[in-house]
Specification:
The complex is a heterodimer of chains A (113) and B (114). Helix content of chain A is 0%, strand content 51%. Chain A is mainly beta. In chain A, strands 2, 4, 5, 6, 9, 10 and 11 form a seven-stranded mixed sheet that branches. Chain A has a four-stranded antiparallel sheet with strand order 1-3-8-7, with no helix packed on it. With 114 residues, chain B is an all-beta fold. Chain B contains no helices and twelve strands. The termini of chain B are far apart. Classes of the chains: A mainly beta (113), B mainly beta (114).
Amino acid sequence: EAQVTQNPRYLITVTGKKLTVTCSQNMNHEYMSWYRQDPGLGLRQIYYSMNVEVTDKGDVPEGYKVSRKEKRNFPLILESPSPNQTSLYFCASTDSRRNTEAFFGQGTRLTVV
Amino acid sequence: AQSVTQLDSQVPVFEEAPVELRCNYSSSVSVYLFWYVQYPNQGLQLLLKYLSGSTLVESINGFEAEFNKSQTSFHLRKPSVHISDTAEYFCAVSQIQGAQKLVFGQGTRLTINP
């Protein structure tokens, strides 16, 4: 089954404690992205990757890092989380040859206290 | 740069009534248009998309959307809603050329009352 898998689904952490949210896709897609969803703001892109070792900032990259060492994986790293990063996070992947539909993971609800 | 505005944050309707969720966009380049749906505690699923051709596009569960270039709109409609349509709906655009990036509207929460 084609899918994007994020882990964990839920996470509560404390300010400053480094964390990683994993994302993996099994569709051999080149493009992968991270979004955050906040009430009244919709989804906003944090970072994206066009292929292995190629990443770039989206609209709200401050406080986040990503890496793309393998095509299937695109982890999101918060090195020093703060309460304003409390949000719902989604990973997405897209086939670059079609570039017409993004497939989303189930989401990770992060709370930073 | 692109921007998307969904004009209603919440839309309550009765079951079997028609509904329209409004979406307007702004872009200096040609874009693809999308509607995504998010059911409670789930990720986003593509509902329908406009790429080119006929300006009226349909989904398998009875929704339709019409691309209006002059009004830069892509409103979503359904003639008769069901309880199972309760969800949040997001309008989005992406550039046809260049890196894939979806720009989303704020979302519209559709609530169906029996």
